[in-house]
Amino acid sequence: MSEFSSFLLGTTIKCIVVIAVLIGAVAYTTWLERKVVAHLQIRWGPSRVGWHGLLQPIADVLKLLLKEDMTPGQASKFLYVLAPLIAFVPAALSITVIPFGNVAHFGSQTVRFQITDLNVGILFIFAVTSVGVYGVALGGWASNNKYSLMGGLRSSAQMISYELSLGLSVVSVLLVTGTLSLGQIVDLQGGRWFGIIPKWNIFVFPLFISFFTYFVSAIAETNRLPFDLPEAENELVAGFHTEYSSMKFGMFFLTEYINMITVSAIATTLFFGGWHGPTFGPLWLRGILPLFWFVSKIVAFLLFYIWTRGTLPRFRYDQLMAFGWKFLVPLSLANVVLTSLVVAWRA
Amino acid sequence: MVPLNYFLILAAILFCLGVIGFVMKRNLITMFMSIELMLNSVNLTFVAFSRHINVLSGQIFVFFVMVIAAAEAAVGLAIIVAFYRNRESLNVDEVDRMKL
Amino acid sequence: MQTIVFFIFAFIAVAAAINMLVQKHPIHSALSLIVVMAMLSIFYVMLYAEFLAVVQVIVYAGAIMVLFVFVIMLLNPREESHRTRQNRFLLVAGVPLGLCLMAEIVILLRRAPLGENETGRQLVGTTEAVGRVLFTDYLLPFEFISVLILIAILGAVVLTKREL
Lengths: 347, 100, 164
Prior knowledge:
The complex is a heterotrimer. In chain A, the strands form 2 sheets. Chain A has a two-stranded antiparallel ribbon. A two-stranded antiparallel ribbon of chain A has the order 3-4. In chain A, a hairpin with a 2-residue loop joins β1 and β2. Helices cover 67% and strands 3% of the residues of chain A. Chain A has 2 domains: 1-66; 71-346, no CATH class. Chain A contains 11 helices and 4 strands. By secondary structure, chain B is mostly helical. Chain B has a domain at 26-87: Helix Hairpins (Orthogonal Bundle), CATH 1.10.287. Chain B has 3 helices and no strands. By secondary structure, chain C is mainly α. Chains in contact: A-C, B-C.
C-alpha cells in the first residue's frame, strides 16, 4: 500500500470516528443539560425512557426524524433548505484541527489523535466558523417570517461583534506561544513549574484575562444564555429557526451543541493544556489517558455552560451590544498590549 | 504542478465576468459585488505570479488589496444604505439628481 | 492530479460567477460570489499561499460578504425588474465589451515572455514568511493602510448616521 493511500484511508477512518463520536456526544450533552438544569431547578428531568432517562436522546432523534417536514409557502425554497447545511458543515469542520490526545502506539501502528495539524490551525478555525454566520442569517431571511428575520439579523450582528473580541483574546495566546498550530500550542504546555503547577497557558501571567474575554465571547458566539437573544422566546417566538421543523430544525440544534463542544475544546487546547495530565500504567493506558483528560476538561466546560444557563437571566439586546463593544473589545485590546509588553520584557 | 497560464486565464475570465456584471446590472449592490469579483480575480493573478517568480511581494499586495476591499465595502455599503433611505430604491439609474 | 483538481474548481468558480450575473435577486448573487471566493481560497492553497487562503475566507467570506448579506437583508429590496431605456443599451453593450477585454488579455498572454519557473527554491507563503516581509520591507505601507481603515470606519459611521 502506498503512502498516499494509507494516509487517505487513515484520515477517512479518523473523520468517520470523530463525526460519529461528536454526534453521540451532542446527543448526550442534551441529556446532561436537561438533567443538570432540572436538578438546578429542583425537578427530575427526563426519567421515563431508560435508566435515569439515558435513552431519551435516542427517542428525541427518532422523533425529529419522523416528524413532518414542512416548508412555509412564501419561503425562498432553495435558501431555506441550504441554511441548516451552511450552519452545520462549518461547525463540524472546525473540529478537524483540534488535537484530542498524544501520539499513541498500538502494536506496530502509531496513531496521532488529531485529524490534521495545519500550521495555520487556529486561523483555520476562525475562517470556518465565520462562515457559519450565513446559516443563521439566511435561515432567518429565507423563512419569510418577521420574527425569524429579526432573530437572524440580531444573531448575525451578535456573532460578528463578538468574533472580534474572540479573535483578539486568542491573539495574546499566540503572542506567548509564538505558533498558530494547535498541536504545537499543546506541546508547549507540557511539564510543570516547581513540580506542582502544570505549565498551562492559563497560569502564564496576563493570559487569565484573555481566557475570561475568550470564554465570555465564546458563550455569545454560540448563542447561549445569558446571550441567547436570537431565540429569546418571549419576544421572538424562537428566533431564526421559528419556521424550521423536523430534521432541518435538528440540524440547527446539532450545530448549536457542536459549536459548544468545539468552543470548549479550543478553550481546553489554548488555555488548559489540551490533553496534558498525569499519565501512568502500561503503554496502552498511557495512550488512552490523554484522551480521558481532554474529554473530562471539555465536560467541565460544558457543565459550566449549563450552570450559567440555569443561573443567569438574559441580557437586553442593547445591553448585549454595549457589553461587547464597550467592555469586551477594549478589554481584550488592552490585554493584547499588556501581553506584548510582558513578552517583550521577558525576551 | 498547474501551469501559470491556467491561473491567468481563469483570472481573466473572472475579471471579464466582473466587467460584464458591472455594465449590465442596474442594482447598486450587485454592481458593487461585481467590483469585488474583479478585485478577487486580480488577487489570483498576484498570487500566481508571486509563486512563479518566487517573490513574496505578490502575496503582500493581495493582503493590502483585501484591506482596501474591506474599507471600500464599509464605506460603499454605508453610501448605499444612505441612498436607499432617501430614494427607497437601489437602481443606479436614479442616482442622477444633484440634490436630495 | 493537481490539474484535474484545478479544472474542477475552476469550473465551479466560473459557473458561480456566471450565476452571480444571471440571478435577479441580490442575495443569490451574493451567495454565488461567496462560492467564487471559497474557490479562490482553494487556488491559493494550490499555490502554497496558505496564510492568504485562510485570510481570504476570514476577510472576504467572513466579513465583507457578511456585510453585503446583512445590508441586503436589512434593505430587503425587490427583484430587479423594470428596465429603463439607457439600461437596454447597456444590456447589449455589456457582453461584447467583456468578450473584447477577454480577447485582449488572451492575445497579450500569448505574446508575453512568461518564462519557466526556476526549479530551485520553492516559495511557501506561511504566516511567518508573510509576517516577516510585511513588518520589514512593507512596514510603512502597512502603517498607512491601518490609518486608511480607521478613516473608513469613521466614514461609515458618519455616513449612516441619520442626522449629524
